[in-house]
Design goal:
Number of helices: 9
Number of strands: 8
Oligomer: single chain
Order of helices and strands: HHEHHEEHHEHEEEEHH
Strand order of the largest sheet: 2-3-6-7
Largest sheet: 4 strands, antiparallel
Number of domains: 3
Length: about 450
Amino acid sequence: MLTKAELKPGAPAARAQGWGSSAPRSARPVVWGAFLLAGCALSGCVSVKDELTREQIALNKNWAARVEAANPARDLSWDEALAQVRGHNAKVKAAALEVLRSEEALDQVKRSLIPTLSLQAGYNRALDNSANAGFDPFFFATNVFFDVPGLVNFRVRHEAAVLTLTRARLMRDMVWREQVTDLYRLALADGRLRARDALLQRQLGALDAVAATAPRTAAAERAGVLARQTRLADERRELQAQLGDLLGLPGASIAVHGLPALRYEQAAERPAAARLAQLPLRLAAIDLVALRARQLGVRLQNWPEVTVSVSSPAVYRSQGGRDSYWSSSEIYVGTNAYWTIDTQGRRASQARIGAAELAMRRETLEQEAARMAAKLRLALDRLGATDARLTGVQEALTGAPAALRVPLAEARDALQAERAEWQTVLWFFDDTGWPAEPPDAKPAAVAGTARATPPAS
């Protein structure tokens, strides 16, 4: 309930005019105003300069500490790596920010129906004191504004905000899947490189024993092993850089253990292609619905538009020593209807462009769906072929002589890497392998482990 505001009366005229005795009374307000403006300008410039200096000093200290300190090695479990991606991956955070923007935009559409309250206060005096006689310099008012949108206008804005939010959430899930599957690929590749390096180290140890009896042969073999180690170190350095960027730990030596078993090892466990790729299909549906909604908006412009205006007085106003309150007798309601005829054909042009854009987008989505279906069919076919080849290599590796173990192990690793790559493709498109809740809704939940469980040690 609004009550009359208590306003302190102005100071007596003699006190208000007590500017001192060194300058004429009419010039003193101008002098004080000039000093005040100059002080505000100087203080603002000095404040910005000081802020920049302090920020640069802090950044220089952090930079010096970062350059001198070495990045520690990080040994992360799969759950810890997912938490690191969720909290520090740039793409995941950007997608979450888009969701936040869309949520706030939708809430703002709903909040636009809430009345807005404004308070106004002022103090006005003339430079010539003779004009201030009998004039109350204080002004105060309280106003309430109502936004009464049209039904069609509100519905269109609300539906557009809902579509934008839905698309942002799906894109967040898509980005999350991309980053998690990339993490899985990189962690698997890093583990294979470390295993190959350990195998080369054992081979060097075996050559030390051979060096006593066949030094030349051992030296030649050692040179080949060292060359492979050098290439391996370069590959792992590049892979570690990608892994550090993905986890938000650039420059650190990272090892991820406890990777989930995707359970696509057997052909019976692999889903049919028709059950996959539901997330991209939902994104495609949103694009088509948004384009059709845009076409509907163009058609609605041909309808007559009705506007309702409501003019209301201030809830409370105090000006010139007089107080006034809100009164229903001063409310004015107006209704206007107008119909703009499209004599220049702009709406028809927009409709034709929208129809062409919708047809082009539909064809593009159909082509993308065809490519995606071909990729999934290829993944399933390659998995079957890789299974057969890998079985043969593993059988040949059992009981193979020492001279053949290294090339056979490299062939096995290459086939395992190929199989893991195609398994990851299935995992990305398989909705049953991902939790239903958003990745940032419950930090304790581990995305990607609804089907995937860590292998037994």
